[in-house]
Amino acid sequence: MKKRLITAFIVITLALGTALSAGAAPVPQGLQNFKVLNTYATGQFSDVQNYSWYAMYVQAGYEYGILSGTTASAFSPDNPLTVAEAVKTAACLRSIYFTGRAGFASSRVWYKPYMDYALKKGIIDAPVADADTYITRAQYADMIARALPGAYPEINQIADNAIPDVSVSDSFGASVYTLYRAGVLTGCDSYGTFRPFEMLTRAEAAAIIARATGTGFRRSLSLPAELKGEDIFKKCAPAVFFLERFDSEGVLLGIGSGFFITRDGLALTNYHVIDGASSAVITTADGRTYDVKGICGYDTKHDIAVLQIDGSGFPYLGLADSGTVQTGDDVYTIGSPFGLLNSMSNGVISHTGREINGTDFIQYTAPISMGSGGGPVLNTKGEAVGLTCLTVLNGQTINFAVPINKQALLSRTDSVPLITIVDLNTDYTIYYRSYFPVPDYGIFTGTPIYKTNEDAITRVKTYYYRQSDITVPEEKAIGGYIALLRENGFNWQSSYTGADGSMVDVYFNGNLDISVHFGTDSPDGVACRFVAIH
Question: Mutual orientation of helices 202-213 and 137-147 as an angle, nearest 10°?
């Protein structure tokens, strides 16, 4: 019995001793855990020359066991980095930093252990659906910053929004600014341009990895506090567009300007630029055209609107605090006066709070003309401080801008077609072009035209509206429009059975000898409500 007790005691002591030993000497976390694990031979990768800017970074990534070649003899420095490769490197960085090793189990799907680890440690927020896609520079910067929290002491003073194409408010903004300030990222030019949505090359990934693993690789950096005019144009012009607005029949009503504020197509312009429009089209600096999908929010008093453009991947402007502008500040404008795309002018702030009809505007001197309205007024950092809005004719560059802070009060979600707001903000009836006084059914109900047809012999013009597009209640879609016809001198005359078997009502204006046939039909098999003008 005594022998058994002694044995048990020894076992317990050994187990306890092991636990104490394991807890007594934990591996300290830190950059000192990155050590040479692999031997790198000169010329190991035939496509990495000693004089290449990335050669020392490739060597460091390989020696630390974080980023190897695509084959035993090739690194493929110009190839894009895949998402799977990116997750692996970020996971290895974190594991080595905190534990001194990167011992990940093998798996049938080779990147799964790294993905699981990255999810667990908050390097990524969700599993990646297609790991073979290429990662963007912004996505990788976010991973690397999150992989080593607290490992990036600030060595560079980079002001918020000083990076030309990255705002601190971007989803990846905080991570990018952390890495710039730590000397891990330096940008692509002397202005610190990051190009967040371009694909990341393997050479660039090697540089980021090396700088993340050792402070000896990190770079000192300073960005200019102010940009020159030509640099502001290069930075901002791609985010500014020319806008054309049309009535319900596709006839041009007017022109203006606007600019993107998010990559996924949110944009700002003046309300008056899209006022009365049933549809609108923009033309970007590269000559491409996009439809205005809808309007999210607007303020008629302050003459500002948030649009949703049908597209994504757009360059966009950072927004400054317009409350900080000072009289005498230099400013620039970019717009499309008289349709002349990407026209730039400069001036100064004349007054920071000029009141006109109970509304405050920023007064400035940069020249503008018709078509400039809705374009940005930019500070010397290339940030929007306002939207060009008003000018005094013969006023020697007395111009006014909507303060950019006004946009913060507007909705950025749930856009609705432009045509749906025309009738809401109009105190008068809008009629079909060339058919006065027949009220425009599409404008009245906020419904776009599905198709039109004009009989070559009788000259009867018919407007069709898909019933599925009519969103107003039936009492307005039918009863409201009939009441509007009566207000404009049309009285019921007769009814007949239409092509689809339903009743069509005929309303006649005897003073002008015009009749309106109002009913339903199914052209091309599509259920429509129609207005035919005889």
Answer: 20
Q: Is the pTM of this model over 0.85?
A: no
Compute the distance between CA of residue 100 and CA of residue 231 in angstroms, rounded to an integer. Answer: 45
Hey, what long-range contacts does 55-62 have (CB within 8 A, 24 or more apart)?
Answer: 56/210, 56/217, 57/203, 57/206, 57/207, 57/209, 57/210, 57/211, 57/217, 58/203, 58/206, 60/206, 60/209, 60/210, 60/213, 60/214, 60/217, 61/89, 61/205, 61/206, 61/209, 61/210, 62/38
Q: Give the residue from 307, 324, 240 showing the smallest Cα distance to 271.
A: 307
Burial of 78 (0-12, 13-18, 19+ CB in 10 A): exposed
Instruction: Provide the CB-side half-sphere exposure for 254 (13 A, CA).
Output: 16
Of 185-199, 255-269, 277-291, 386-400, the poorest mean pLDDT is in: 386-400
The candidate with the shortest Cα–Cα distance to 200, out of 134, 146, 129, 144, is 134
What mean pLDDT is predicted for residues 343-370?
86
Question: φ and ψ at 37, to 5 degrees?
Answer: -110, -30
Radius of gyration of the chain (CA): 32
- Strand order across the beta sheet in which 461-466 lies: 451-454, 461-466, 528-533, 514-521, 503-509, 491-497
Contact by Cβ (8 Å): 295, 305: yes
State how far the Cα of 102 lies from the Cα of 93, in Å rounded to an integer.
Answer: 8
State the average pLDDT over residues 37-63: 93
Q: Are strands 514-521 and 399-403 parallel, antiparallel or unpaired?
A: unpaired
Distance separating alpha carbons of residues 534 and 514, to the nearest angstrom: 6
H or E stretch covering 304: strand 304-309
Residue 430 tokens, joined = 């809008």
- Measured distance CA(110)–CA(340) in Å, rounded: 54
Count how many Cα atoms sit within 13 Å of the Cα of residue 275 in the half-sphere of its side chain. 14
Relative orientation angle of helices 137-147 and 83-99, to the nearest 10 degrees: 20
Euclidean distance between CA atoms 448 and 426, whole angstroms: 17
